[in-house]
Amino acid sequence: MPELPEVEITRRGVAQHFTGQTLLDVTVRQPRLRWPVPDSLSSLAGARLDSVERRSKYVAMRFGAQVVLVHLGMSGTLKVVDAQSAWDKHDHVQWLFEGKALRLNDPRRFGSVDLLAARDYEAQTHPRLASLGPEPLGVGFTPEQFFKATRGKTLSAKALLLSGAAVVGVGNIYACEALFRAAVRPGRAAGRLSRADCTRLHSAIVAVLGEAIERGGSTLRNFQAIDGELGHFQTHCDVYGREGQGCKRCEGVIKRRVMNQRSTFYCPGCQR
Ligand code: ZN
To answer: CA 229: distance to chain centroid?
Structure first.
């Protein structure tokens, strides 16, 4: 599943290729994604792509007073292709620019494409955006705000991270990695974390996501298509996928436990 760093790298790739260009045409081959792709999407033909932004795991393409909001769901990718190139299976939507096109490929179709007024995007009033927590790499995410968001919460620290209420875009892998780095046991009740725990966890979230984006960014420069190399992000894990292997910080052995139906990796030796 694409996590926030992959989405951010995708955003940069789309921005790098198409910002400032005029959208020539939109083709929807399969409108039945997570939600129906709006017919009005094709009305954007002739508009200029002003900027490509990101909110949580949504890529937001601004065309004047309208914004196209793309979510990659479980298996989606946005790729840059030559305008003439043959359609791949599961290519559902195409935005055609001069010479090149952006295509959404999504085998499982949990992704989505929405069209909204720029003011609803900015005010975050659109239903897809209304209940999102703060951006992990934005100014609204502070140790103090994060500490407050944990108060009175009986759910586990890991579940709180995945819920998106305290901070958005921290998926399963990065939640495991951030909790390890902060030396916080994933199953601890969020409301019982100390201020110091929250401060460490806050820094760990920012660092883990920032480093993943940096690694992805260094691969982005070299390739035309935005997809393809994204799996490389996940090879730099301290705990995720390392069950039974030695801890990188203490003498412990990494354990795997299923919490809320998700594999959770942690070190019982040094995460408390
Ligand atoms: Zn350890």
So the answer is: 16
